[in-house]
Amino acid sequence: MIQEAAAVIRKGGVIAFPTRCLYGLGADAFNPEAVDRIFKIKKRPAQKPILILIDDPVRLKRLVTTVSGTATAIMDRFWPGKVTLVFEARAEVPPYLTADSGKIGVRLPEHPVASSLVRELQGPITGTSANVSGRPGCYQIGDLPPEVTEKLDLILDAGPLKGGRGSTVVDVTGQVPQVLREGGVSIQDIIAIGGK
Questions:
Q1: Residue 25 has pLDDT above 60, yes or no
Q2: Which residues of 68-79 are buried (b: 16+ CB within 10 A; e: fewer)?
Q3: Which of 60, 104, 138, 181 is least surrounded by CB atoms within 10 angstroms?
Q4: In the structure, what pLDDT confidence band is assigned to residue 164 with cuts at 50, 70 and 90?
């Protein structure tokens, strides 16, 4: 099933797949038509960036300009899983991923299906939640709204996920990391590594 899903993504398709606690929408992050489909499926404003998932931190070289010592410490402590890091994006990163902010959110996924998928593709995929923008995310496929499911090319159903809070989003573009959204990792835990 992983190989089938990867084949769909390589052809420009959009799938639903399990992330850590919610289902996400996956597409080739460097395929503008596929990512545009995600924006339309979610009815997501173009000014909101879309985070991406990678299979190995070495992939960051293709995506970001700098990986600070603090960013590395956060990755070593909390990847895979509970933290999305926001980096300065390389010039080659498409603006539709960054919402013209010059920054890109990246996470190493924790769920074994998501991990296997990005490893099979060996390239970044989108990891935005499988929902209509502004509505709650879904922890089981049966809760996905029909206006989302009817527009997907494949659904990887891994059963009910644990739900709960999403990833903590940390901007590591400055000298001191900034927590943009508290999620699965507390602000205090980030502070302990050097943030505020």
A1: yes
A2: bebbeebbeebb
A3: 181
A4: confident
CA distance 137 to 99: 21
CA–CA distance, 154 with 165 (Å, rounded to integer): 25
Tokens of 157: 């159903």
Cα(182)–Cα(166) distance, integer angstroms: 8
Structure tokens at 120: 């099979």
Quote the DSSP letter at residue 128: E
Tell if the pTM clears 0.85, that is, is over it: yes
Dist CA 145 CA 15 (whole Å): 14
Number of domains in the chain: 1
Residue 136: pLDDT above 90?
A: no
Residue 126 has pLDDT above 80, yes or no: yes
Which regions of the chain does DSSP assign to beta strands (E)?
15-18, 23-26, 52-53, 83-88, 103-107, 125-126, 128-129, 154-155, 168-171, 178-181
Structure tokens at 86: 């926001």
